[in-house]
């Protein structure tokens, strides 16, 4: 883990502890990278209870209750799907805040509408508005995935501060 991600994870943990909140994550293209960054911090069991790596659409539906219709109409890499992933993770775990991510890490799989490097994020809190964001990252697969983990953590911190 790079030092910036470690610093973000530490800051996130401090914010969660100060509010007595827990966090969950629903990941696709990051493949557990967000959960890994969070659990690299000693004491994270106080504020992180569960995460989901739902790479296949079947598991987005089964575990996170993502609508099959939304997956067909919008595709897995979309704001609508990450919103449902975040909401589903909150419902499944009872956490206070969730982040969800789905994207095209590459090097293959990109299209004109959804190029390699496109990543969608959603941040959801209980009884609050869900925030979504689409970012076009540059670089190879590892760079896109690392940048997505960083953005996910930054978004969690921003939501908690606001």
What would you say this structure looks like, in words?
- 46% of the residues lie in helices and 20% in strands.
- The chain contains six helices and five strands.
- It is α/β, with parallel strands linked by helices and 162 residues long.
- The two termini are 27 Å apart.
- It has a single domain, classed as Maf protein (Alpha-Beta Complex), CATH 3.90.950.
- The protein has helices spanning 3-19, 33-39, 57-64, 68-74, 79-93, 141-161, and strands at 23-27, 48-53, 97-103, 118-125, 131-136.
- The model has no long low-confidence stretch (mean pLDDT 97).
- β4 and β5 form a beta hairpin.
- The longest helix is centred in the C-terminal third of the chain and has 21 residues, at 141-161.
- It has a five-stranded mixed beta sheet, with helices on both faces.
Outline of the structure:
The protein has about 160 residues and is α/β, with parallel strands linked by helices. It has a single domain (about 5-160), classed as Alpha-Beta Complex (Maf protein).
- Overall CATH architecture: Alpha-Beta Complex
Cα separation of the termini? 27 Å
Put simply, the count of helices is 6
Q: Which runs of at least 5 residues are low in confidence (pLDDT < 50)?
A: none
Task: Give average pLDDT, whole number.
Answer: 97
Structural class determined from secondary elements:
alpha/beta
* CATH level-3 fold name: Maf protein
Question: What is the makeup of the main sheet?
Answer: 5 strands, mixed
Tally of separate domains: 1
Helical residue percent?
40-55%
- Specify the CATH homologous superfamily: CinA-like
SSE topology string: HEHEHHHEEEH
- Indicate the overall shape: globular
CATH class: Alpha Beta
Oligomer: single chain
């Amino acid at each position: 883990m790079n030092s910036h991600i470690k610093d973000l994870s530490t800051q996130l943990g401090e914010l969660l502890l100060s509010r007595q909140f827990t966090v969950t994550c629903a990941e696709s293209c990051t493949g557990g990278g967000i959960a890994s960054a969070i659990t690299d911090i000693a004491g994270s069991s106080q504020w992180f209870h569960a995460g989901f790596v739902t790479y296949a659409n079947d598991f987005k539906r089964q575990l996170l209750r993502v609508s099959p219709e939304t997956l067909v109409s919008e595709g897995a890499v979309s704001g609508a799907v990450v919103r449902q992933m975040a909401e589903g993770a909150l419902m499944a775990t009872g956490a206070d805040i969730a982040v969800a991510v789905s994207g095209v890490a590459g090097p293959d799989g990109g299209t004109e509408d959804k190029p390699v490097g496109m990543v969608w994020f959603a941040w959801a809190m209980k009884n609050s508005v869900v925030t979504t964001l689409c970012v076009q990252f540059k670089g190879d697969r590892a760079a896109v995935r690392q940048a997505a983990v960083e953005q996910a953590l930054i978004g969690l911190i921003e939501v908690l501060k606001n």
